[in-house]
Amino acid sequence: MFIILRRLNYPCLLQNLQQSAMSIYADVPKGPAIEVFALTQAFKDDSNPNKVNLSVGAYRTDAGVPWVLPVVRKTEICIASDEQVNHEYLPVTGLETFTNAATELVLGADSPAIKENRAFGVQTISGTGALRIAADFLHTQLNRNVVYYSNPTWENHHKIFCDAGFTTVKSYRYWDQNKRQLDFKNMLADLNDAPPGAVIILHACAHNPTGIDPTQEQWTELADLMEKKKLFPLFDSAYQGFASGDPDRDAWAVRFFVQRGFELFACQSFAKNFGLYCERAGNLTVVQKNGATKAAVHSQLTLLIRGQYSNPPAYGARIVSKVLNTPELRKEWMASIQAMSSRIREMRTALRDKLVALGTPGTWDHIVNQIGMFSYTGLNESHVRVLIDRYHIYLLKTGRISMSGLNTGNVEYVAKAIHAAITGAGESAACPCDNKL
């Protein structure tokens, strides 16, 4: 047909025909892979029997398998058996018994902010959804355009706030790679340079990825600085209860800032502390100076949610609500989070002790000084490459590992592999998997 068109000298018809044959998506560039999901897929595709996945931020038992909390399973059965439960839409801002319980969990049952009706929550699509709704509100309603997050931080913080329209997205120093500890002096210096009104993302507990949190004394200094500079605290609370096994301890920083009189946001996830990773149960807690602004703020959050996903899913919220609002179930949940946090602490000690016993160069106490799901090991990209390519141990290029991926059956293998990667024996020495551990 193209030959006929050329002979008939119909260039315009030929051009139109060629253009109509092209897809409107032809020029869409392929985006970069999301590292943690790419590593998880590579792990699944790996047939090596000694493979270890230290990349994914999800709890695993000592047998290396996902764990449905017994109280969650029990509650699921109870909900499924309840003939009164239906599949009607939730309100736009979610299940009220869930948002009330979540807000009370992070602020405390005796919180003056709750008693004075100047705090409330709205249900979100897990912690990520809470961050996005918070960012959209701050940008559209309060005209905030400047946000600071820690260096390093959870990589999605940057994308969420950029996508929400923030024009100045900066980081503050947080991790001292040489000393493998909090770089608090430079953290304060960077925040002191932040302009009034800047949004400061703070990890409520179990900092991701370093596992290092400020002390209570350091939190006090941060509050002093942020109050003086009129900075807005936005707490990302993804590990309450999971970090230490004590939800009250893990919420100390948030409650302290509320006690100091800050207006703030707290973005909550129930993925880790309830094991509800795929159910996307989250809450955005809003704290105000007085209740007079509550109706207006709530109405604008309602409109934001309506325009994004209309209303949230019910399943995960129903589980969390029933557990937190039923004393005997809540007691069982407390036992579960204590068990998870205790196993992770045991793995921290085991890995540190084995590295020390091997004489691995460097100091390793930072592993046990950190808290929560992750450890920022101090391994560099070259070490990581050796661990992945030679030993089939999957971890982020930053050297961050998920402690829950370790267990009594693989921790010695991992320690020997780290030792080999650091000492340069990774390419020449026998692989630890060649020996029966």
TrEMBL record:
Keywords: Aminotransferase, Cytoplasm, Pyridoxal phosphate, Transferase. The keyword Cytoplasm applies. InterPro entries: Aminotransferase_I/II_large, Asp_trans, PyrdxlP-dep_Trfase, PyrdxlP-dep_Trfase_major, PyrdxlP-dep_Trfase_small. One of its GO terms (biological process) is aspartate biosynthetic process. SUPFAM superfamilies: PLP-dependent transferases (SSF53383). This is Aspartate aminotransferase, cytoplasmic. The keyword Cytoplasm applies. The lineage of its organism: Eukaryota, Metazoa, Ecdysozoa, Arthropoda, Hexapoda.
